[in-house]
Amino acid sequence: QPISMDHGLAMAFRPKRFRGNESGIAALEFAILAPLFAIAAIGTADYALRFEAQASLDDALRIAVEGAIRLGDDADGVAEFLNQNGYSATITTFSSDDSPEATSASKTEVMQFEVQPTEACFESGVMQVGGRGETDCADPEKWLRLAGSYRVDTFTAGAVDLGAQIDVKVQ
């Protein structure tokens, strides 16, 4: 018997006893597509969580820079300014390998900031950066390094450490 085009080729390869029976097709389609939609939903929520955490960290870093601009070379004042705005800030000493990535072992579940008084100068073609009083410069520029860290628990990657830092020249 010839195959009619309105049933398509799929009907041609079905045994005759199943050709008219379409029960269970919706359940089969759901079983195939539901995991894909679940993965997409979890991925979207995970991305939104990380995006919100990075935005919060960037906002806090903006507040830290505002404090450095207002208060100048007062590291204690900048830390207090951050604390008054609801962020946990501490004064730390400068270390050349001290970055948000290098200090991830000390991070906790909250956003934390470090305010590091530093100095820098460019003499004899060499850039020197160090803690206050650690460079061999006659008249070093004063800087504050503002470093923030934030640990975020995500659905797919577990705990993710976010970090941001900026150096601000102060008077």
What does this structure look like?
The chain is an alpha+beta fold and 171 residues long. It has helices at residues 8-12, 25-71, 75-84; strands spanning 88-91, 112-123, 126-131, 141-154, 158-170. It is built from three helices and five strands. Strands 1, 2, 3, 4 and 5 form a five-stranded mixed β-sheet that branches. The model is unreliable at 98-109 (pLDDT under 50).
Mean pLDDT across the residues is: 77
**Count of individual helical segments:** 3
Number of strands: 5
Low-pLDDT stretches are 98-109
Shape: elongated
The radius of gyration is: 29 Å
Quick take:
By secondary structure, this protein is of the alpha+beta class.
Topology of this structure?
Elements: H1 8-12, H2 25-71, H3 75-84, E1 88-91, E2 112-123, E3 126-131, E4 141-154, E5 158-170
Parallel strand pairs: 1-2
Antiparallel strand pairs: 2-3, 2-4, 4-5
Keywords:
single chain; 171 residues; alpha+beta; five-stranded mixed beta sheet; 3 helices; elongated
